[in-house]
Amino acid sequence: NNILYNDEIMVRDNVVEIEDRGYQFGDGVYEVIGVYDGEPLLMDEHMKRLERSAREIRLTLPTEVGQLKEKLQQLVQANGLEEGIIYLQVSRGVSPRWHEFPSKSTKAVTVAYTREEERETALEDNGGTAILAEDIRWLRCDIKTLNLLPNVLAKQNAVENNAIEAILHRGDTVTEASASNVFIVKDGELYTHPADNYILNGITRQKILQLCDELGLKVHEETYTVDDLLNADEVFISATKTDIAPILKVDDKTIGKGTPGNITQQLVKAFRTLYEKKKA
Ligand code: PLP
């Protein structure tokens, strides 16, 4: 199994330096890119978000994204990856541990690897349950940084309660979930939290907005409450590789009829055409 380490595709080895700032401070940014039938999906969108995340934390990407994209394609080929994900992270580099940025000569460290993952078609078709959790994260959730401890704790809580996700709320307002965005449907129209500093603007979320537009579905990028969520006709989450997963129950409250809703199913189908079309 190969990895990308800075500019080089090499055999996976122990490359973690104990004073890598990603390791010690979570000082870096990352992306997870879905691979379907050997083809990365929405790669340009992921690269654009990576550039933005890096800029927001004042990290200079050591590789131009066009070149990085090519390296990632090579990595997928080298590993013969058909179904799965590319994990890519860029940390602020290796330097003696002081909180402030290291000297200008310290270069950011890029690492990427691939992981085989089966398609989650059963989850898309059958859905799952979620729990509610207070959103205790910082106020720059729009940046895809390595700091994920609140997300980790929320997800663990979900798993211990046999749920697939923890839906987060700040007070009354639903923001997103521990590793996905959240949409609700009420009276045939969709609602999702606006792409501001309280959520990560998911690549899947952005694609769904586009698909809704094409399908003539009305979407409100507006905040909504926990009460709106619990009384919605349909709820679904979106994230890379999971794509779209219907949520049938939140805590003890059944959503709608307790089965995947029409609009959710319509979007699942539309999303599948994105990579099935590519294959054809
Ligand atoms: N929100 C959070 C907190 C996430 O960690 C993720 C992805 O893992 C998402 C949303 C969904 O983003 P994307 O669709 O780009 O995978």
Write a compact overview of the structure shown.
The chain is an alpha+beta fold and 280 residues long. The protein has helices at 21-25, 43-56, 65-78, 121-126, 149-160, 203-215, 226-230, 262-279; strands at 2-5, 8-11, 28-36, 39-40, 84-91, 109-116, 128-134, 165-170, 173-177, 181-186, 189-192, 219-221, 234-239, 243-250, 253-254. It has two domains: 2-116, D-amino Acid Aminotransferase, Chain A, domain 1; 121-279, D-amino Acid Aminotransferase, subunit A, domain 2 (D-amino Acid Aminotransferase, Chain A, domain 2), CATH 3.20.10.
Commentary on this structure:
The structure is a single chain. The protein is α+β, with helices and mostly antiparallel strands and 280 residues long. It folds into two domains: 2-116, 2-Layer Sandwich (D-amino Acid Aminotransferase, Chain A, domain 1); 121-279, D-amino Acid Aminotransferase, Chain A, domain 2 (Alpha-Beta Barrel), CATH 3.20.10. The protein contains eight helices and 15 strands. Strands 7, 8, 9, 10, 11, 12, 13, 14 and 15 form a nine-stranded mixed beta sheet that branches. Strands 2-1-6-5-3-4 form a six-stranded antiparallel beta sheet. The relative contact order is 0.14. The mean pLDDT is 96. It binds pyridoxal-5'-phosphate. Residues 32, 151, 176, 179-181, 200, 202-205, 238-240 line the site of pyridoxal-5'-phosphate.
